[in-house]
Amino acid sequence: MNAGLQTWLSDQLQSLRDQNLYKVPKILESPAGGRVQMNGKEVVNLSSNNYLGLANHPKVRAAALAAIEKWGVGAGAVRWIGGTMAVHDELEQRLAKFKHTEAVLVFTGGFTANSGCIPAVLTKQDVVISDELNHASIIDGVRLAPAAYKKSEGWVYAHKDMDALETCLKAANEKGFAKKMIITDGVFSMDGDIAPLPEIVALAEQYDAFVMVDDAHASGVLGQNGAGTASHFGLYGRVDIQLGTLSKALGVIGGYIAGSSLLKDWLINRGRPYLFSTAHPPMVAAALIAALDVMETDPEPMARLWANTRWWKKALQENGFDTMGSETPITPVYVGEERAAQAMEKALWDEGVYALAIVYPTVGLGKARIRTMPSAAHTQEDLEFALEAFKRVRDRMA
């Protein structure tokens, strides 16, 4: 092994440790749920995206097992070469109906859906106008595109600031860009607040721009049966591109782009992650269809998610914790300094609660927080146990 590379890696990792930014993943040893076995210990898990508890739902598990018997364990090819099975096609048709769009194209992940779609629909004659708190997958997708996008050039607007967005749009019109894309998270993944989508769409229509919304954390959480922010705000037909994930509320894995039939056809031909990635195992597609069935026919998981969310936020706030204006199940508990946030994570773990410290560069330096995620899988007892742990840790660290 190259000595120079190994020395560089060692030095960089030590630098992360010195800055309290070094991460070591814990190992989940049980099915995903409100209480899990992790690193040999039972803990209340407040760091899971399994919003509706579908990752271990009996109907979803049964569908996956049945698909293995029918289809085997692999598609055997890239989608366009021969890896698209009937079950993949069925999933896309179901998702398009769910999202009230003409068509959907499924990718292997939400990250790859962004990196596949954004560069495919932009040219060097175009501009991307982006919220400053957009997810890393949006940022990386934009970087892959030939369009203008840099913050230093004025194309990143202050978080949810509609006056700043309008300033960007006016400047883009003055410069004569061919296409103008406004891109935003629907629900912001670290703060838990919701994008002002009606205002964004109105500005886009006024200035002849088009809108792309990353609904990763809105899927299964907002809108009719969890259809996302366009549904939540009644904006069907006015959002040009919607991204959804299949690995959070739906409990399995994958991502998709919802939009027009022309968009789907273009991404089949020019979406590089689609063109060069093997298709999902058929059991994944079948499990996702079953998860959609549950979401569309059983309102109880979503109702329980929101009941738990409301209780958790109110309990934290009443006990003096700063939840940073969160509007969704993503509930940050503000700490500030990186070292203190990591110390709090460790102390919570010792108390039997897994709640991850989020530090730079995931959030701004000095804006560390403990990110908590109540779900439909949590019982009232789980949340009360976690609240008492937060209070004990806070009092010890004060």
Overall description:
- The mean pLDDT is 95.
- The protein has two domains: 20-51 and 299-397, Aspartate Aminotransferase, domain 1, CATH 3.90.1150; 58-297, Type I PLP-dependent aspartate aminotransferase-like (Major domain) (Aspartate Aminotransferase, domain 2, 3-Layer(aba) Sandwich), CATH 3.40.640.
- The protein is built from 15 helices and 13 strands.
- It has helices at 3-18, 58-71, 79-83, 86-99, 110-120, 136-144, 162-175, 197-206, 229-232, 261-270, 272-275, 282-297, 300-318, 338-350, 380-397; strands spanning 35-38, 41-45, 103-107, 127-131, 156-157, 180-185, 210-214, 241-245, 255-259, 331-336, 353-354, 356-358, 368-372.
- It has 398 residues and is α/β, with parallel strands linked by helices.
- A seven-stranded mixed sheet has the order 3-9-8-7-6-4-5, sandwiched between helices. A three-stranded mixed sheet has the order 1-2-11.
How would you summarize what this structure contains?
Helices cover 44% and strands 15% of the residues.
